[in-house]
Amino acid sequence: MSTPSGNPADPRWTSMRRLSPRRKTTAAHDAPSLAREQLVHFGLDADDDFGRSLLRIVERLYETQVDLDQIWRESLESIQGLDRADRIARFNAKKFLSFQFAKLLDTWQNPARASYQSLNYRPATLCAKGPYAVFDNVTAIFAANPVIARTATYIYACAEWIEDAFQGK
Question: DSSP readout, 17-81?
Answer without folding.
Answer: HTT-TTTTT----SHHHHHHHHHHHTT--TTSHHHHHHHHHHHHHHHHHHHHHHHHHHHHHHGGG
